Amino acid sequence: MSVLESIHDPRDLKSLSAEELKTLCNELRTFIISELAENPGHLGSSLGVIELTVALHYVYDTPRDQLIWDVGHQAYAHKILTGRKAEFHTQRKLGGISGFPKRSESEYDAFGGGHSSVSISAALGLDIAAGLQGKKQHTIAVIGDGAMTGGLAFEGINNAGVSGKDLLVILNDNKISIDPNVGALKEYLLSISTSRGYNRFKQNVQQALRAFPRLNRAIAQFVLSIKRSLLQQSNLFESFGFRYFGPVDGHDLKALTKVLEDMKHIKGPKLLHVLTVKGKGYKPAEQSQTTWHAPGKFDMATGEQIKGAKGRLKFQEIFGHTLLELAEKNDKIVGVTPAMPTGCSMNIMQAEMPHRVFDVGIAEGHAVTFSGGMAANGLLPFCNIYSSFMQRAYDNVIHDVVLQGVDVVLCLDRSGLVGEDGATHHGAFDIAYFRCIPNIIISAPMDEHELRNLMYTAQQGGHGAFVIRYPRGKGNLEEWRNPFQSVKIGESRTLTKGKDIAVLSLGPVGTDVAAAVAELQNEKGIEVEHVDLRFAKPLDTAMLHDIARRFRNIITVEDGVLNGGVGSAILEFISDNGYDVRVKRLGIPDEFVQHGQVRELRNLCGYDKESIKKAIIFCTNKK
Q1: Can you give the pLDDT at residue 432?
Q2: Beta strand pairing status for 582-588 and 357-359?
C-alpha cells in the first residue's frame, strides 16, 4: 500500500517517518497531476504547495488549529489529506466537491476562499473569536499567488500587527499569480530573497529565537536595526508589527517542519516567507506557469494539452483583438486589468503597446479608481475585471467614476454562470448591483459582432461609465471580425416578429432563445416576437410601450439574478405605466448556484433552451 493510501485524515501523518513524509509528497504530486489530466482544475498552484501542505498538517493539530488558504486554488493537497481523496475525481463537477475551500464541505476548511487577499483578515477574526471563547488553537493564514498585492491583505496586516494575537501568516512567494506578479511588493520580496548577507543573518536570528523565545525589547530592537542595515531598508512586515522569518525553501520538507515547530512557540503576530515554485515537480508546468495555471485536459506522460476543435474564438479573445484594433486608431485608449492580462486577453494589446496597458496586481478597487484618474485627465480606459471580482470595486465605480462624470469602459468578463469555479466566480449580480446607479450604461452583446460594435460605440466617448458584460467561453460566429457600427444607446433590436408572445432577452443567452423560437415555430406553429434588448440600462422604452400594447404575455431571459435584474426593470416599467401584462422572468433564482457545466447549471436554474421552450408553451397555452 502506498503512503497516500494510508492517509485518511491529518492525524495519520503524525506517525510517518521523515522518509515516508517525503514519499507522501511525491505521491500527492503524482495523484494531483493524474487526476487533473482527465478532470481539469487549477494545477500549478497546488503543485507548488505540496511540501508546505504536508508540513502544516504534520506540525499542527487540524482542524482544532485552523488553516486559511488564500487563494483557494492552492488547496488541492489540503483537500486530499483531509478525507476527500476518494471524492477528488468529482471536484468542480455538478454535485461533486468544490475546487476551493468550502466550510460546508469539511470541518478542515476553516474559511471559504474563492477570492484572494482575505486570509489575514479572516484568520485574525477566527483567532480573536477563539480567544474570547476560551479555545486554545493556532491560526495560520497561507497567502500567496499574488494575493498579497490586494488592499484587503494590508488592511488585515495593519490590524493584526497591533492585535497581540499569536497569528502566523505564511507568505507563499512563487512570483506569479496567473501572470507574473507586478509592482513594488514583488521587487521588495525579490530584494529580501536575494540578499545574501540578510539571509545569513536571519539564520543566526532563528537559532537565537529557538534558544531565547522571549527576547527582551532591547535585543529585538538591536536585531531589527541590523536587519535594516543589511537590507538597506526597513523590513516592511516588521514595520507593521509582525516578526518576520525567512525566506525559507518551501520544498525542503525537513526545514519546513522544523521552522513551523519553532513558530508554534513564538508569541505575537509572525510572518514566515516561503519560496516555492508554481508547478513544482511537473516540468511542463514549471516551464510555462501561466499556461499551466489551469491547463484543461492534458496527456500526463507527454505534457501535451488536449485542445478542442479549432474554430470559434472565445469572447475574451475577441475582446482582446478588438481592443488592439481600436487602440491603433484611438490614441486615448488605455487598458487596465487587475492581474488578469492573459485571462481577459488584454495581453494582446500589451504585446503591441506595453506602455498603454497597466496590470495593477490583484487590486480591483485600485484598478477602477486608477482608471477614473486617467479618464479625468483625458484618456479613455478600458478597465477589464471579471464580473464577480468587480463586486470588490463597487464603491470605487460609484464615487470615482460615475460621480466624477468621466468616461471609463467597464468590461465585465465572465458575466453570468461561469461553470466549474462555482458560486465564488459566477458573474450573477452585476446587472442588479449596477442598475440602481444613476448615469451608468449597462450593455450585453448577444454575439461577437455586437461585442465589437458596443466596444466601438463606447470608445467614441462622452458616455460616462459604460458597462459591457460578456460571458466566459466561445460564441457562435466563425467570422467574428465585422466592420464596426455605432449602436444607439438604449436601442434594442427585434430579431423575429410574432403575434403569440414576446420574449425579451439580454446577452448571449439570446442565442438559446432564438433556437427555441425557431423550433417552436416549426414544431407547434407558435409565433414569437423575439427582442434582443442589448441594454439593461437605459431600456428601450419606445419598444417596451409597443410590446406592452400588443402582447398580454412577456417572457424575459437573462444570465443574471432575477432579483433586481433586467426582468425586474421591465416589471417596473409595466407597473409604472399601468399596463395589464403578465411578465414571466427566467434567470438565476435567489440562491447561490454551485459548480458544474454551464449547460447543466442553466438547466437547473430554468433558462436553458428547453426551459425557455417550456415557458413559452406554458404562457401561450399551446400544448
Answers
A1: 97
A2: unpaired
276 three-state secondary structure: coil
Residue 246: the pLDDT is 78
Residue pLDDT, tens place only, 184-198: 665 666 565 545 455
pLDDT, one tens digit per residue, over 315-334 is 999 999 999 999 999 999 99
Report the C-alpha gap between 240 and 256 in whole angstroms.
Answer: 24
For 295, phi and psi rounded to 5 degrees? Answer: -80, -5
Grid coordinates given for 154:
494590508
The residues facing 131 across adjacent strands are none
Structure confidence by residue, pLDDT tens digits, 347-365: 999 999 999 999 998 899 9
Give Cβ neighbours of residue 171 (< 8 Å, ≥ 6 apart): 143, 144, 148, 189, 246, 271, 272, 273, 274
Catalytic option among 278, 435, 452, 602: 278
DSSP 615: H
CA–CA dist 452, 442 (Å, integer): 15
Active site residue 364: yes
CA distances from 115 to 56, 153, 271 (A): 22, 12, 21
Please report the pLDDT score of residue 538 as a whole number: 98
CB 166 within 8 A of CB 265: no
The dihedral sign for the CA sequence 311, 316, 322, 324? negative
Q: How crowded is residue 397: how many other Cβ atoms within 10 Å of its Cβ? A: 27
CA gap 88, 73 in Å, rounded: 14
Cβ contacts of residue 122 below 8 Å, gap of 6+? 68, 111, 141
pLDDT given for residue 309 in this prediction: 62
- What phi-psi label fits residue 298: left (phi over 0), alpha (psi between -120 and 50 degrees) or beta? beta
> What tens digit of pLDDT does each residue of 69-79 get?
987 788 999 99
Contact status, residue 376 vs residue 404, Cβ threshold 8 Å: yes
pLDDT of residue 322: 97
Query: Which residue out of 35, 51, 364, 558 is catalytically annotated?
Result: 364
Closest C-alpha to 614, from 513, 479, 534, 483: 513
Structural contact between residues 554 and 570, judged by C-beta atoms closer than 8 angstroms = yes
Residue type, 253: L
Rounded to the nearest 5 percent, the helix, strand and coil shares of the chain are 45, 15, 40
Residue tagged active-site, from 186, 392, 435, 469: 392
Give the pLDDT confidence score for residue 182 in this predicted structure: 54
216, pLDDT greater than 50: no
Query: Among 177, 120, 114, which Cα is nearest to 144's?
Result: 177
Strand-pair partners of 299: none
Whether 383 has a pLDDT exceeding 70, the answer reads: yes
DSSP three-state, residue 76: helix
DSSP class of 2: -
**pLDDT, average across residues 549-568:** 97
What cell does 146 get?
499574488
Exposure string of 95-133, with b = 16+ CB inside 10 Å and e = fewer, is: ebbbbbbbeebbebbbbbbbbbbbbbbbbbbbbbebbee
The span from the CA of 408 to the CA of 212, in Å, is: 56
Which three cell numbers mark 359?
Answer: 496590470
Name the 3-class secondary structure at 377.
Answer: coil
- Evaluate whether 98 touches 41 at the Cβ level (below 8 Å): no
